[in-house]
Design a protein that fits this description.
- This protein is mainly beta.
- The protein has one domain.
- 15% of the residues lie in helices and 39% in strands.
- Belongs to the plant self-incompatibility (S1) protein family.
- Pfam families: Self-incomp_S1.
Length: 130
């Protein structure tokens, strides 16, 4: 009986921990293909250079900064992210941050379908928009 209660308590602790904070490892899966249609670009980032905070019912806002050039012009841009069932807003600014260790998100850039996006010195074309 004691072992059964211990297992229940452990499961409860794991559940509470998962809801209390987002994961701190993984990469961004950016749903942008290059002009030849190869696999999406992965980007990772520093968790501690970001700000994230809970909003209404299990939604999170997430902010991160790095260089982005669209059609040859460096500018701010944004995309939508999902983390689990949490729908998230992702803002991109034209500052550089060191990219390492971040929660895993799926990201679709809000650019026009034929825009050429330059990120990390490679050219990428929008594959999807939300």
């Amino acid at each position: 009986m004691t072992g059964y209660i211990s297992i229940l308590l452990a499961l409860l602790l794991i559940t509470l921990t998962n809801f209390a904070s987002p994961a701190t490892s993984g990469t961004y899966d950016v749903r942008i293909k290059d002009e030849l249609g190869t696999t999406p670009l992965n980007i990772s980032c520093h968790t501690n250079t970001n700000k994230y905070f809970p909003e209404k019912s299990l939604q999170w806002s997430f902010w991160y900064r790095f260089n982005l050039s669209i059609d040859g012009q460096t500018q701010s841009a944004s995309c939508n992210l999902k983390y689990g069932n949490r729908k998230t807003t992702f803002e991109v600014f034209n500052n550089t941050r060191d990219p390492h260790n971040c929660p895993q998100w799926t990201c679709d850039w809000k650019v026009r379908e034929n825009d050429v996006v330059q990120l990390q010195n490679k050219k990428w074309k929008a594959m999807y928009k939300w």
